[in-house]
Amino acid sequence: MTCGLYVVTSCADGKANGQIANTVFQVTADPARIAVSLNKENLTHEYVSRSGVFGVSVLDKETPMPFIGLFGFKSGRDVDKLAEVEHKEGLSGCPVVTENALAVIEARVVSTLDVGTHTIFVGDVVAGEVIRDGEPLTYAYYRDAKKGKAPKAAPTYHGPPPAAAKERNDVKMQKYVCQVCGYVYDPAVGDPDSGVAPGTAFENLPDDWVCPVCGAAKDQFEPE
Ligand code: FE
Q: How far apart are CA 132 and CA 71, in angstroms?
């Protein structure tokens, strides 16, 4: 299924948080109304439930992986995510992330639907702004071009591929998998965002190199 990739934000009791979501969509035009599906275990879910407002940032196609890792693979219970990125307070009091955003939207919840592991929040758009021109990031581009993965809490998560489906290529350099987020380091691709050229073996990565998705250290990787 085709979908975009967004940062959904909310706040409660003076605290703010945000998370990556690929489940934002417009449900009606008049009134302007959008919906998002959030995992019940996520802190952002708690904040939206309590405050009744949420923000949506439409991400730029060129959004770097560490930014996506911050919002997609780290919990607001462990880190203050918004402290690390450009953001601003919206009209509703809800923060919206402006860094790597093409547009921001604020919505006030008018309806919710319990769908098991997730809740679908439907909200009336109360504010919106185009931040900059650009091409929106899609979930397909994130997975195919950026080699991004879905965390276990995502609606689109599925486990690692069965062994039979893996490439049988024992001549090429060994790929390594991040045990935290599932990112695969492919020596043929390298990690250009971090200055690692294609053709760099995992063993030759600098000791301070970290997973471009979740920030895990090298010792968190295992051969694929
Ligand atoms: Fe990782």
A: 21
